[in-house]
Amino acid sequence: RPQLSLDPTCGLMMEGVPLSAVADEIGTPTWGISASTLRIRARRLLTAMTGAGLSVSVHFAVKSNDHLAVLRILASEGLGADVVSGGELLRALEAGVPASKIVFSGVGKSDAELRLAIQKGVAQINVESAEELEIISALAVEAGRVVDVALRVNPDVDAETHAKITTGLADNKFGVPYDEALALYLRAAALPGVRPVGYAAHIGSQILKADPYRAAYARVAQLVRATREAGAVVSVVDCGGGLGIGYRDEGEGSPEAFAGAIRAELGDLDVRLAIEPGRWISGPSGVLLSTVILRKAVTGGAPFIVLDAAMNDLLRPSLYDAWHGVLPLSPHDAVQEPEKAHLVGPVCESGDCFARDRMLPPLQRGARVAFLDAGAYGSVMSSTYNARPLAAQVLVEGERWAVIRPRQTVEALWANETTPGWLNGDA
Ligand code: LLP
């Protein structure tokens, strides 16, 4: 993690900014994002693709981190966006991503969302079912438009990742069953309002090896050939996202191996290629800063370190048993002999646990820590459960940092709530 370093006097630094200074000034819990990490990783991915001799358009998966500043940085690096809702579409446009670089995916897009996408002129809508194809056709005809669609096929391969983030198996809800894809493509070619341009496949997330990609793309390549033999034009393959990162000691997914899998299976098809990475770019760029509220001793066992961040902020450990690295911010804490402890949040759920039996320096009340690799599926999955306001967010670049979302106020939690008159004793 080149953008995080330990300074002997300032403690944990993100780029040129001591994270304790951020915590001192705006408190915790607070998300920190490193702009340079976003840029470096976006460039590495682009370089891996061009290095493999591929011309690939990169659509950042907005769901992994949808902050306008993040999207603006990545747009300035030339990336487009992969969106899965009307909200994400409007966010991407607001951040300056042109509609012509936006792909709209998702298993259930509402009529309103589809109308919006058609009206804004997105590059492509990825169709996930026969039913959806008919709906898009009707809505496009109604709008007097013809939209480019790609069929998202379910290649039925195992991405070898966590069950909750596997999407490419036949019993997952995603995509058109492989064996039905060709017939549906030909149906699309005959429908008004839609123009089938190709296929899309996304088999899951946090994928560390190239083999599942190769298996999936081999199936897609077969489908492209069969479709062409049937007389239809195929000009696009969207290879999805899913490249994993090293949360612990598993090593990260290699962009070069990913590019190699694409080239090996799809390189000679003469199609325009696209990818939809999220986590690989945004994950390592973010941290979540938190303060120890208290240290609860357990007789004969590891203490509970109760933090001011909780599952409502960073849900991944509760939902997927995900492992996030934890580092103390203070240079003093960083060099203490580690002990075994449980790191938990204050929310009233046993599942509100970040780490059990984790070896950490002895953290006392007031100590501050950073959760690592929290830039993807972190702030975006937060809720206000237990009436806990959304945490602040800061962006760091070089020696500068700025608040990019102030801490939500408690009053904002109920600002839009009303109580009907009859509850207030009105007539
Ligand atoms: N494209 C599609 C169609 C997707 O469904 C996803 C992620 C991506 C691209 C981006 O995948 P990535 O490159 O970020 O792996 N909340 C979970 C991850 C859910 C991923 C959902 N789909 C987590 O925290 O691990």
UniProtKB/TrEMBL annotation:
EC number: 4.1.1.20
GO terms classed as biological process: lysine biosynthetic process via diaminopimelate
Residues reported in the UniProt entry to bind pyridoxal 5'-phosphate: G242, E276, P277, G278, R279, Y377
PROSITE patterns reported for this sequence: ODR_DC_2_1, ODR_DC_2_2
Catalytic activity: meso-2,6-diaminopimelate + H(+) = L-lysine + CO2
Entry keyword annotation includes Amino-acid biosynthesis: yes
Positions that bind substrate: R279, R316, Y320, E349, Y377
CDD domains: PLPDE_III_DapDC (cd06828)
UniProt-listed NCBIfam families: lysA
Family affiliation: Belongs to the Orn/Lys/Arg decarboxylase class-II family. LysA subfamily.
Subunit composition and interactions: Homodimer.
Protein's UniProt name: Diaminopimelate decarboxylase
